[in-house]
Structures are given as structure tokens and as C-alpha cells.
Design goal:
Jelly Rolls, 158 residues, 2 domains, Cupin_2, RmlC-like_jellyroll, five-stranded antiparallel β-sheet, metal ion binding, transferase, nucleotidyltransferase activity, mainly beta
Length: 158
């Protein structure tokens, strides 16, 4: 329950490992999917992309569990105009952004603009990342009507 809104959730079952659920908020039904990242086959040995399994259209999310010495391919998201945030949950790694190495330790996050070339270079221990990408936006362009004076940034209220 949040404020005077009532929230009820019901999951009808699973399809291909994805839970099919509905959420009712103050009489409005919203559908959502739930998936466990360990059920998704890794790509390039480390990346588990959740976006397709969750039918997301605007936000890309991947989990990367990187073995010692693993490296991603250098790439950018200029064609999609997607910015990216890499959050290192465990371990230590380097994210190279436009040829500049950025050393990360557990808990660090780095924002990467769409046109920047990026590459994850894992060190000597296993690391775990959450990678989030989405269309570049004016960060204060959307407001939250239930909370005057607040704003929404890529789905988070601030």
C-alpha cells in the first residue's frame, strides 16, 4: 500500500521461465513479466540479456558475470542513441571509455554516453555487473504527478 493507493499482485504462471503477472493499482490493471537471470543463456561467455525475455521496449538490462581475464568487445550505442550505466556489484574491473580506462570496485557505477566506445576488461577475480541502457533523454523532462516538484529519470523518481 502506498499512500491511499491499494496494490494487489497476482501471477498466473510461467511461460518459458518468465512469470506472467498482473498488478492492480487503485483499480487499474498493469501486466508485467518476471524472469530469473540465471535461466537465461549467457552470450559471449558472460552477458545475460534480460531485455527480450522481459519484452522491454525502452530499457535494456543485462547481467554480466565475468570470469577472470574476460573482456567484452569494444562497441558503442550511437546508432540506437542509447546511453548506458554499468554498476559493478562484485569484484574489480576496468571499463574503457573512449580509450580511457576507468577502474571500478564493488559498488561503483559509471555512466556512458551513446557515442562513446566502451569495453569491460575484467581483472584477476570474478566480477558481476548490472548493465542498463536506454534512449538518451532530457533527465528532467518527465515529472511525477503524484509527487509535485519531483522528476522521473529513466523510471526512477528523484
Amino acid at each position: 500500500m502506498r499512500g491511499d493507493r491499494r496494490i494487489d499482485t497476482e501471477c498466473a504462471g510461467e511461460r518459458d521461465g518468465v512469470s506472467q503477472c498482473e498488478r492492480r493499482v487503485s483499480g487499474v490493471t498493469e501486466s508485467y513479466d518476471r524472469v530469473n537471470y540465471t535461466d537465461i543463456e549467457p552470450v559471449s561467455g558472460a552477458m545475460r540479456p534480460l531485455t527480450d525475455s522481459l519484452d522491454s521496449e525502452r530499457v535494456g538490462v543485462s547481467i554480466a558475470r565475468c570470469e577472470p581475464g574476460w573482456r567484452s568487445k569494444p562497441h558503442d550505442h550511437a546508432a540506437e542513441d542509447h546511453e548506458e550505466i554499468n554498476v559493478l556489484l562484485d569484484g574489480e574491473a576496468t571499463v574503457v571509455i573512449d580509450d580511457e580506462p576507468v577502474d571500478l570496485k564493488a559498488g561503483d557505477a559509471v555512466w556512458i554516453p551513446p557515442t562513446a566506445t566502451r569495453q569491460i576488461r575484467n581483472g584477476d577475480v570474478e566480477s558481476a555487473f548490472v548493465l542498463v541502457s536506454g534512449p538518451a533523454t532530457d533527465r528532467r523532462s518527465a515529472t511525477c504527478p503524484d509527487e509535485p516538484g519531483s522528476w522521473v529519470i529513466d523510471g526512477f523518481v528523484g
